[in-house]
Amino acid sequence: MARDPGGDVVARAERLSRGGWAAVLEGMGPGTRWLGEGRLQINSPPYPPGEIPGADLLFVPVTPRRGWVTWDEPHRYAVVDPCDGVLAGTERRPASGPLGALLGAARAEVLLLLGSPRSTTHLVALTGQGLGSVGRHPKVLHEAGLIRRRRAGRSVLYRRTEAGESLVRAGGGA
Q1: 121-134 pLDDT tens trace
Q2: Integer Cα distance of 167 and 161 in angstroms
Q3: Cβ–Cβ contacts within 10 Å for residue 11, how many?
Q4: InterPro entries under this entry (predicted)?
Q5: Per-residue pLDDT for 90 more than 60?
Q6: pTM, to two decimals
């Protein structure tokens, strides 16, 4: 399975906007959590706490399944962790059954894949469909209110709306 650091950044930015640092750090790695009041735990005890006032703290998504911490004292620290975004592989689900019958198998597959933000390039890689086909599906799904779109640099990212989530759950795709 190929990992997608770009998708990771988008997913974590969305978590930050919804739930703050605690949501971003949740599941990042063993012992990593937001303690509140400007404090962050990045590893399990027995290491003593340290302070890094005024230093840069970077979060670096990587494709290996293991994370680590690195630093250039006293000015720069980094939490290097496995990325969350998935570009290809195990996430592909066939869109058969009621959802496939309602939307068509190809369009339903695109809706299923939009549980996390994706560009048309990601969708082409995941589905194996041509760019022309994949490009039409988000347009129709957006007009139906099942997905939303937003610009991220040069890309447009699509993600299911609550109505899209409900449809996927009702169709047995969740």
Answers
A1: 888 878 878 888 88
A2: 10
A3: 20
A4: ArsR-like_HTH, Metal_resp_trans_reg, WH-like_DNA-bd_sf, WH_DNA-bd_sf
A5: no
A6: 0.51
Q: Which two tokens mark 73?
A: 């004292």
Closest CA to 69 of 42, 89, 104: 42
Distances, alpha carbon 123 to alpha carbons 30, 31, 50, 78, 114, in Å: 31, 34, 43, 31, 9
Which amino acid does the sequence have at 121?
T
170 Cβ neighbours under 8 A, 6+ residues apart: 98
Please list the alpha-helical segments (H only) found in the chain: 5-25, 97-103, 105-113, 120-127, 131-143, 162-170
* DSSP 3-state of 10: helix
Q: What domains are there in the chain, each with its CATH number?
A: 2-82 (no CATH), 91-170 (1.10.10.10)
